[in-house]
Structure prediction request, 817 residues.
Amino acid sequence: MNTNLLTRFRDPALARELLGDIEQLTARLLAARPEISAERPLRLMEVCGTHTVAIARAGLRELLPPEISLISGPGCPVCVTANRDIDRLIACTRLPHVTVATFGDMLRVPGSSSSLALRKAEGAAVEVVYSPLDALKHAVEDPGRQIVFAGVGFETTTPLIAATIKRAAAGQVSNFSVLAMQKQVPPAIAALLADPEVALDALILPGHVSTILGTEPYRFIASEHGIPGVITGFEPADILWGIAQLLRQLWRRTPEIQIAYERGVRPEGNPVARVAIAEVFEPADAIWRGLGAIPRSGSQIRSTYTAYDAAHRFELEVEQTVEPRGCRCGEVLRGVLAPDHCALFGRACTPQDPIGPCMVSSEGSCAAYFRYQIHDRVPRTPPQQPAQSEDGKR
Amino acid sequence: MTKTITMAHGSGGSATRELIQKVFMRSYATMPLLEGNDSAVLPMPASVDAGRLAITTDSFVVTPQFFPGGDIGRLAVCGTVNDLACAGASPHYLSAAFILEEGYSQDDLITICLSMARASEEAGILIVTGDTKVVERGHGDGVYINTTGVGFLAPDVELSGAACRPGDAILLSGTLGDHGIAIVSVREGLSFETDIRSDAAPLYALCEAVLKAAPGTHAFRDPTRGGLASTLSELAEQSRVAMLVEEQAVPVRDEVRGACDLLGYDVFQVANEGKMVAIVPAEQAEAALAAMRSAPYGADAAIIGEVQALATSSEKPQAYLRTPLGSRRVMDVLSGEQLPRIC
Amino acid sequence: MCLAVPAKIESLEDGGMAVVEILGIRRAVACDLVPEAGVGDFVLVHAGYGIEVISEQMAQETLELIAEFPELIANDSAGG
Prediction:
């Protein structure tokens, strides 16, 4: 294909055109709906953490009309991993002859009393990999060691963890296993929308999760909740295009699930990838940091692939789970509390010395707010509550 | 049979002497070293009248030790030379101390030393003294090098990171991120193929040319670890100003952009070893740019932004980026190690 | 939540792998999830795997939709 076609989405001129459309649509909405103002802005949640970072890097917030507020959601797989799961991973590092292989994102996330980075400093075998394939390769090259891959991610990542397990099975690699902690996005969105405190006007839906899922799993957002959702790409123009389509839906009051990232997301998703997931994993109940237990929102390895399940292969001695005191990542992940309105933010909790996972992960909303010094223009007061809610305080 | 480093090479006995003679003296072959005394006794360079002396030290622990475009030896010379250059000091004398791990290949050590010899010759600095220690196998990472550099300043050279003034232009001597990406391209587990080479280079000649063309230059700083983001935020803090960089004005190779996209790196945080930032009064900026571009390693130089006054006394001194869309955002500083990420 | 970058397939290799190019850098990626991908195709690469073949036609369509958007919204009417 013509490379220029893809670079056109990086063209600032295209983004500027879209900003013009957005201004026009916002003006119309304001004229028609007096309840919307800079003090009571439209609440658009970007579910995906990669969007959070892309928005901050492009400086999109200051370019949007003040009546549009972008709220970061729970779409950072590292951030929503429960302390208990991190502790299980840390327990793996205490096993003899075991190397824990992880995406770089997980390395510094604190569990109850340690982190993979700390365990590495203490001499444990922890290795950062770019791909689960690298972990499998390590297992093949070093048959004397057990390689445990930290299975973290959403539907984008789960199929390739599945594919790696299938490759391990095909190659009869017996010293490779996965500690499965992956999560599914649609059940989390359902839990969010069921929470009256969250009160959202529209959803910017994740691009690459949807590459796998397609539109079907999101239908309920529009049909049951009457909320528009647009699947959006990651260039500034992609994000603005998604916002423009959301505003149009809000103006026309025709909530539906649209794709604004057509080059990377087919309506039916990637069926091959979903088959891979279904072959290796089955849905399981999972605990999300901030959202709590959500039925069938996690993944566990099917009995046919038990041999590659680290939870099955090893007897893990997991420490008592301790939640960090004062940490409000849970509320941040639900979009109820703006990161900079947490009492620990920037004081006890910084990217250098993080307390909660939202400050550790590069795409965590606290880290993005801290690094890019984003300040919410208005406290996150959900519309149906009085102006002075708890998170209005500093 | 390949020769390896043994504990005896660090004992101070005959093996040590042999190593010094066969490896270090033969590679560097500088007079003060060949004299073999405990201290190098050196003349004040004739070109320097009374002036002032600059001294700097740095240790080098890079893995892998050989990478596209360079090796730990070239890095150990260039890094220290460039720290002298930042002060506007002409490089003269260099010490080189090695901590070697038992079992390290002597051939590799010779390759490193020859590379240091070449780099020091290019930079016009003389390796005059050195030291070798050997640690047991497993207690080191092959080879660590410390270099200390001595340079001299002309009387009228007055550079300081605290001297940046609102209105000054920010110049960058070339493309960003080449060294850091060249290193990760050969790291175990991350390896990808690329033509990107480390930019490790001695930059005194470039700084000298800038000083000549723009005598009012306020500061030089080499954006090494932490990249341009750390360098500019340090300068901002020292001078209590804001640094505003035009994102589109910063030269970055396509391959570096591609690697950053793939690994989730921020190019402004990636290390450089052959780049210089210069803070120059606006009226001398064009002259400084022309001088940089005709100096060695400066062909891709650009004016990338300007120093601005803090809007209020409470504003934090730091670096900002003007995005291609015209918005302004903070240029965030790396915290901890740069890691590949999937999110 | 998931970084994925467009990369062009330069060659197909043994074991379901392909060599892709991203702005001048090359890396091997696995094609298990995009069995239909061929040389010259652009794929989205996430953590060492291709996860989708990028559709040129759809990229073109998006650009056209964006170009036509001002006219489209000019004729829109507010929802009740």
Observations:
- The CA atoms of residues 4 and 105 of chain B lie 4 Å apart.
- The two ends of chain B are 48 Å apart (CA to CA).
